[in-house]
Each structure stands twice: as C-alpha cells, then as structure tokens.
Amino acid sequence: MEEKIITPENAQPEKKKKILSCIQPSGIPTLGNYLGALKNWKLLSDEFDSAFAVADLHAITVRQDPKKLRQQITEVFALLLAIGLDPEKSIIFIQSQVPAHAQLAWILNCYTQFGEMARMTQFKDKSQSHADNVNVGLFSYPVLMAADILLYQADLVPVGADQKQHLEIARDIASRFNGIYGKTFTIPDPYIGKQGARVMSLHDPTKKMSKSDPNPKSFISVFDEPNTIMKKIRSAVTDSEGGVYYGEGKEGINNLMGIYSCCTGLTMEQIEKDFAGKGYGDFKNAVGEAVVEELRPVRERYNMLMKDQAYLMDMAAKGAETASRIADRTLHKAMKKCGFIVK
Ligand code: TYM
C-alpha cells in the first residue's frame, strides 16, 4: 500500500477542543458568577470551540414570576455579550429555544438512578430552602445539566466549584450510556479556576456568594454602580485581627484577597507583601477599586446592549439555530442507539 505522506496541505489540523457552559437567569448575576465562571468563559472562548447558554429551563425548578423571568433571560443573554463573548466565534443561546435539551434530558433520566440524584448536595440544600416546592424538576436538575453538556460533546466545562458534583454525575451518565451503546458522548472534564472558584458572601464569608441571597449587602451584582460596589466592599465582614494575609479564621480577608487576585492578577504572596503594615481600610479601598474597574466595561456594554432589544433577540435566534443543528445531531445519535425511529 502506498504510504501517505503528510504535508502542510493535507495535514488534518488538530481538532479544536469544545467547551460549553451555562448560567441560570434566576436573579441578577453576581461577582461570584463573573469571577468563578464568566471571566473564564471569555478567556477560553479565544482558544476553544465554544457554546454558552442562558439556562432558563433550569430556573423554573424554583417558582418564578413569568414577567420577571422573561426580563432576566434577556438581561443574562445581554450579559453574555457584554462580557465580550463574540457571537461570530461562540454559539450563544437561550436553552429553552433549543428543544433537544429537554428531549435528551428525558432520555438520560432513564439512565440515571434515583439514589444518584438523592445524593446531590444542591438538591438537599434547595429542598430545605424551598420546602414548599420540592418538585421532580429540582430533583432531576443535574440530568438536564448533563444533557446540556453532552449534546455539544463538550471536552471542558468551565464552572465554579459548586458545580463540581453535577459535573461528576454528567460524566457518570455519559460513561454509563457509552458503556451500553458504544461511544455516543464525549466525557467532559470540569474546568475550575484556581482563584475565584468559590467567591464567598460579603456578609457571611463562610457561605457562597449567591444571587438568591435575600441580603443585598452579601453580594455584588455585576451591574452595581461604582459607589455601591465601594460601599459593599467597605462593609464586608472581616475579623478583628487587622493583618492582610491569608490564613485560618480569616475567611473574610481570604475572600477579599481572592477577589483582588482575580481582578488584578496578583498572587496571594504579592498581595500580602503590598499590604504589609497596612490596615483593612486601605485594603478594602483597593479591592473596591479593582472590582469597579473589572466590572466597568461589562456594565457599560451591557447598558448599551439593553437599549437594542431587537438586536438581542435576533442574536438569540441565530444562536439557537446554530446550537440546534449541533444538538440535534447528538440527540438523533442517542435516540437511534436507544431504538427510536428517527425521522
Ligand atoms: P449558576 O447559574 O448558579 O451559576 C453560573 C456559574 O457561576 C458559578 N458561580 C460561582 N463561582 C464562584 N463563586 C460563586 N459564589 C459562584 N456562584 C456561582 C457557578 O459555578 C456556575 O459556573 N447549574 C448551573 C447552570 C448550568 C450549567 C449547565 C453549567 C445549567 N446547565 C451546563 C455548566 C454546564 C448553575 O446553576 O449555575
């Protein structure tokens, strides 16, 4: 057989790896969402084939006001563009506009064990905080998340640390399905940044910063004005010890150092050095200013984008069309393997 000689002309370029991630439109996104996930999405989108979605189907696992939900879906979609994601390079879409997500989720439900879902810590937490509405959607939420990821054959999923358990279950479901039917899904790896993976509440630094926290002082919204950001950081709970260094019992300072590190690129050691002998007042001012500068371009672009709703909806429709093409391919493959007659 004639030997095939690889030349620059016929060489198969190494296939770009794929990433996918989503964010729920269940409130105003926080600095935690931004530093733990969104900032990495933008960085990775330059290097990978990428898809990002507003996970609106996930949001109704908790009761939502329809008018508010519609508004928040638009806001979060605008935010994805405002952080600098480029719709020419990345697929940016709204989950409910791509029916394959719900369809694959149903199939994967049948390859997921009750006991696996019952172990999920987020389910346990949320069924306590929403005890009057422990619905089946809340229970099988990680299966829908697995469908989101597997439809795009994602290699990497950039998330904050709180999503790690959901990523593990997505891997388990994919491996199980592949084990029964042969390779159907790529097994995804989580991508969790070194800093910012778990931004804590400013009011109680032992708790995750969350957009659903009823105390608005506990989180910084990505749309907060500079003076609000400064005020919130200045009133962040710290300790009475007074030194800016990373350590046990200093959760408040550790958290502010993590935030500062994400915004400035400085390491913890550099921060300790820069603030040696200085008080918390100076440090908090520096953190506040760094956060203001980090979020300024995002807020400015967001405010511009929100003035053009027709453009946003047009971008969403285009994103959903491209996403559907990819998602349907995987869905049909999985359906055929199960024995369905695919049109
Ligand atoms: P959601 O909407 O709660 O959060 C979006 C992203 O922000 C990260 N995050 C944080 N990171 C650091 N510190 C915090 N305090 C913080 N709070 C939130 C989250 O880890 C997440 O990466 N289930 C997901 C949405 C989802 C999804 C998916 C993610 C649906 N389908 C498929 C990845 C792949 C969620 O509720 O994220």
Question: What's the short version?
Answer:
The chain is 52% helix and 7% strand.
Please tell me about this protein's structure.
The protein is mostly helical and 343 residues long. The protein is built from 13 helices and 5 strands. Helix 3 crosses helix 12 (280-305). The protein binds tryptophanyl-5'AMP. Tryptophanyl-5'AMP binds at residues 21-24, 32-33, 36-37, 55, 58, 145, 148-149, 157, 159-160, 162-163, 196-199, 208-209.
Layout of helices and strands, plus pairs?
Layout: E1 18-23, H1 31-45, E2 49-54, H2 56-59, H3 66-82, E3 90-94, H4 100-109, H5 114-118, H6 121-129, H7 136-151, E4 156-158, H8 164-181, E5 189-191, H9 226-234, H10 251-264, H11 268-274, H12 280-305, H13 309-338
Parallel strand pairs: 1-2, 2-3, 4-5
Helix pairs in contact: 3-12, 4-7, 4-13, 7-8, 9-12, 10-12
